[in-house]
Structures are given as structure tokens and as C-alpha cells.
Design goal:
Number of strands of chain B: 5
Largest interface: A-B, 38 and 40 residues
Helix content of chain B: 25-40%
Largest sheet of chain B: 5 strands, mixed
CATH topology of the largest domain in chain B: Ubiquitin-like (UB roll)
Oligomer: heterodimer
CATH class of the largest domain in chain A: Alpha Beta
Order of helices and strands of chain A: EHEHEEEHHHHHHEEEEEEEEEHHH
Radius of gyration of chain B: 17 Å
Distance between the termini of chain A: 59 Å
CATH architecture of the largest domain in chain A: 2-Layer Sandwich
Number of strands of chain A: 14
Number of domains of chain B: 2
Number of helices of chain A: 11
Largest sheet of chain A: 5 strands, antiparallel
Structural class of chain A: alpha+beta
Order of helices and strands of chain B: EEHEEEHHHH
Helix content of chain A: 25-40%
Shape of chain B: elongated
Strand content of chain A: 25-35%
Distance between the termini of chain B: 55 Å
Radius of gyration of chain A: 20 Å
CATH topology of the largest domain in chain A: Uridine Diphospho-n-acetylenolpyruvylglucosamine Reductase, domain 3
CATH superfamily of the largest domain in chain B: Beta-grasp domain
Strand content of chain B: 15-25%
CATH architecture of the largest domain in chain B: Roll
């Protein structure tokens, strides 16, 4: 059943404090809407549970990207286009800029936001594995105040997040210490644009004298939440990249991930591709070490 | 603050459409697509999927390509909107139309307004697009007739002709 617009309210205070007091007044009633690339799909299908929406697309402080000496702070309503265009983001956080380029087509990149991708909490979201490997922090705000948390603690289960009903994501902060890492981003889907991933990988690594000093691996679409491969990373750190190590990585990640069969793919295919993507990255990392 | 009109109340909204100031009375969650087609009779903007996958409802909102099926009309307040009808005087329009005709880039026509707007959005930023730029610029627009190749060729042809001018 298509939604009847007459049953919905949408207010545009244009001011963050007013938005927060509205959310505080009736926390479960009001739903913030930015670019609408997820919510409008639910709305049109008659599946939006809320009848009251508050516009956060026109809140200037949510649209800024601020660069500090040690970090980059991205306003939650920054679009994928803004991320792709930003000099420091694309240079120092290429995994995020690349993921932004995979997310929908240009029209959706002009409206879809990073904060929206986080709040929507799809396990298949393309930008979220990048946030995991870059050690992102999120700042959540409400009329009660603000709190900061590691992004890795944000998702608690399938579509379950730490966000309270009266809270907004204000910004996502990325530490500027990964620009020297070898990075690798791959999405496997039915087509490049618009297709939801079957598997996607964000990977970072540092290699010295042929040995892995640090490795960071995160996958989308292989678990109920965007998933960091902590066990596999531990199995790789301090080791030389050899065929036997790549084999170890494959075996370890299959034990860690929890892929499912769904309309896009099968658990078996996802596990095989996840292994292929990680070994592709390790080969790239080894080659970078050999050329160093 | 006056939080808003209540449920069921239409609001008066002001924006510019194809260079003209327009005033409409609409529910704030109405889709920009429906307001353009039903209130303003701009039926060049098509509805394909209605979920932001196909690009048939593409318009330019303050110069940005967007899917108008995913824009609540209240978010367009004060904005400048360009639909396919507003493109007729654009310098790219004749080269694009000619190239689409010559290359067989339009068949049933449902995707064409969106393809043209996506092409304009691309060519305004990238005068000499590489084939990969064209594919990326049009990746959000689905066509069920042509198989895309003719459309990509048409955009490349229009770009070459614009550069030569």
C-alpha cells in the first residue's frame, strides 16, 4: 500500500537545538530525515512506522567536513558526493571515498549521507567497513548532551544500534594516521552502481621487511552487522606473507564470518568471495612490501 | 516554535521551477515527483521504479542531479529546480538531442529525460569525459530498451561536438 502524504508531518526547523528538543519531547514519534534515499523508499512503500518527520537536511553544522591536525570530522549529513570531492578525505581515507563512489548512482550520492548510512545500519552498507578499519568515532547528541563512542561499538545486532530514540548522529571523526597504509577496497555485486553488495571489503595494512606490522580487515554483507575480522587480523600480524599464510587467513575468516543465503547471494558464495578478496589484498600488500 | 502544520494540513511552498517562481499548496511529504507532474503539469519527469533505482524521475535541484521520487517536496522549499522541460534552451540540448537521434539512444522514451539530465549534469562538469566517466555519470539511470551502448555513444558524440564548437 502506497503511503498517503496527508497522514504525515514533516517539519523543517533549520536549527539543531530545535530538532533536538523536538526529538526529546516525543522521542519515539519523530524520525529525522536527511537526503531520504533510504527513508523515502520505505515511505513510498507504506512501511515507514513514524508519521512525524523532522528535516535535518538543512542543518548547516551537520553538513561540514572539518580538518584538524590529528583528525577529520565529518558532519553526519555530508553526502557521498561531498566525501568524494573532499581533498583530504579522498587522499587520506581512500577506502571511504571509494565506498562513496560505489553507493548508488550520482543522484543518490548527491543525497545519501554518511550518517544516514550508519543509522540505517544495513549489514550490506558500502561505507561502513571503511569506518571500521579507520577506527572511526561517532558523536551522538541529544537534548541531554553529547557522547562519543568508538564506531565499532555502535552496531549491536541486525539493524540494532546504540542510538537512542532522542539522539542524532552529529559527526564521524577519523584519526589521520592511516595515510601511509596500503589500502584495498573491493565490492562484488551484480553491477557497479545501484547494486547492493554481495560482499565488500575494506582493508588496510603496513608491511616492513616482509612482515605484516598492522593489518585491518572489515567486510560488508557477511554478518548481521558490518564486520571487522579481529581474529584473522591477529593471525596475520607479525607474519611474513606466504602462500601458507594466505591459506591461514582464508580458514580463519570462514570461522569468523556469519554469511547468509538471501536474494542476492548464498552463504557459500559469500564465504568463498570473502576469502578471495582478503587473499587479493594480502598479495597486494606483499607486492607493496617487495617494492618498498 | 510552531512545530508545524499538523497531520493532514497542506502548506504553501515556494520554489523556482525552470527559472519561474512557483507557489504550490502541498502536503510536505508529497514526493517532488508528484508535485511536478500533478500540480505543475510537468510530465516530462517520469516515474519508473519509485525507489531511487532507475533515474527516470531525475531533476536538477540547486544544480544537483537527484531522484525526485526520493525528495519530500518540503525539502525543495526555496530551491531552484530544473526539469527536462527547462532544458530546451540549454546549450547542450541540441547536440544531445541530435546525438541521441543519430545513435539510436532513445527508444520507448521513459528513461530519456533522466538520461539527458544525467548527461547534462556530467558534461557541465566534465567537458571531455572518458568512456568510464560517461558510464559512471549515467550509472543511476536504467534503460530497458537500448542496452546502453547507443546512449553512451550519444553522450560521447555530443561532448565531442561541444568541444569542437
Amino acid at each position: 500500500m502506497r503511503a498517503d502524504p496527508a497522514e504525515f508531518r514533516l517539519v523543517s526547523p533549520g536549527d539543531l537545538q530545535v530538532v533536538l528538543s523536538l526529538l526529546a519531547s516525543e522521542p519515539t514519534e519523530w524520525l529525522p530525515i536527511a537526503g531520504g534515499t533510504d527513508l523515502m523508499v520505505l515511505y513510498s512503500a507504506g512501511k515507514l512506522p513514524n508519521r512525524k518527520l523532522v528535516n535535518i537536511w538543512n542543518i548547516p553544522e551537520l553538513r561540514q567536513i572539518e580538518v584538524f591536525p590529528d583528525s577529520v570530522r565529518i558532519g553526519a549529513a555530508c553526502t557521498y558526493t561531498a566525501l568524494r570531492k573532499h581533498d583530504i578525505v579522498s587522499r587520506e581515507f581512500p577506502l571511504l571515498a571509494t565506498a562513496a563512489s560505489w553507493t548508488g548512482g550520482i543522484a543518490n550520492q548527491n543525497r545519501g549521507t554518511l550518517g544516514g548510512n550508519i543509522a540505517n545500519a544495513s549489514p550490506a552498507a558500502d561505507s561502513l567497513p571503511a569506518l571500521l578499519v579507520y577506527d572511526a568515532e561517532v558523536t551522538l547528541i541529544s537534548a541531554r548532551g553529547e557522547r562519543r563512542m568508538a564506531y565499532r561499538d555502535f552496531h549491536s545486532g541486525y539493524k540494532q544500534t546504540a542510538l537512542a530514540a532522542d539522539e542524532l548522529i552529529r559527526d564521524i571523526s577519523l584519526p589521520r594516521r592511516f595515510s601511509e597504509y596500503v589500502s584495498h577496497a573491493r565490492k562484488v555485486g551484480a553491477r557497479n552502481a545501484q547494486a547492493i553488495s554481495k560482499v565488500c571489503l575494506a582493508a588496510l595494512g603496513q608491511i616492513a621487511n616482509g612482515t605484516i606490522r598492522d593489518v585491518r580487515l572489515a567486510l560488508g554483507s557477511v554478518a548481521p552487522i558490518p564486520f571487522r575480522l579481529n581474529e584473522t587480523e591477529r593471525a596475520l600480524t607479525g607474519k611474513k606473507i606466504e602462500p601458507s599464510l594466505i591459506d591461514t587467513a582464508r580458514k580463519s575468516l570462514v570461522k569468523e564470518i556469519r554469511p547468509i543465503d538471501d536474494i542476492r547471494s548464498t552463504a557459500r558464495y559469500r564465504a568463498a568471495v570473502a576469502g578471495n578478496l582478503v587473499s587479493e589484498f594480502l598479495e597486494k600488500l606483499a607486492a607493496a612490501g617487495a617494492n618498498a | 516554535m510552531n512545530p508545524s502544520p499538523g497531520t493532514g494540513t497542506k502548506c504553501q511552498l515556494l520554489f523556482t521551477v525552470n527559472g519561474e517562481a512557483r507557489k504550490v499548496l502541498a502536503h510536505p511529504m508529497e514526493r517532488l515527483l508528484d508535485v511536478l507532474r500533478n500540480e505543475l503539469a510537468l510530465t516530462g519527469t517520469k516515474e519508473g521504479c519509485g525507489e531511487g533505482e532507475c533515474g527516470s524521475c531525475s531533476v536538477l535541484l540547486d544544480g544537483m542531479l537527484v531522484n525526485s521520487c526520493l525528495v519530500p517536496v518540503a525539502q525543495a522549499t526555496g530551491a531552484s529546480i530544473v526539469t527536462i522541460e527547462g532544458m530546451s534552451a540549454h546549450t547542450l540540448m541540441i547536440p544531445l538531442q541530435e546525438a541521441f537521434l543519430e545513435c539510436g539512444g532513445a527508444q520507448c522514451g521513459i528513461c530519456t529525460p533522466g538520461m539527458i539530465l544525467a548527461a547534462v549534469h556530467l558534461l557541465e562538469k566534465t567537458l571531455e569525459p572518458a568512456p568510464a566517466d560517461i558510464r559512471e555519470g549515467l550509472a543511476g539511470n536504467l534503460c530497458r530498451c537500448t542496452g546502453y551502448q547507443q546512449i553512451f555513444e550519444a553522450v560521447a558524440m555530443a561532448a565531442r561536438r561541444m568541444v569542437r564548437k
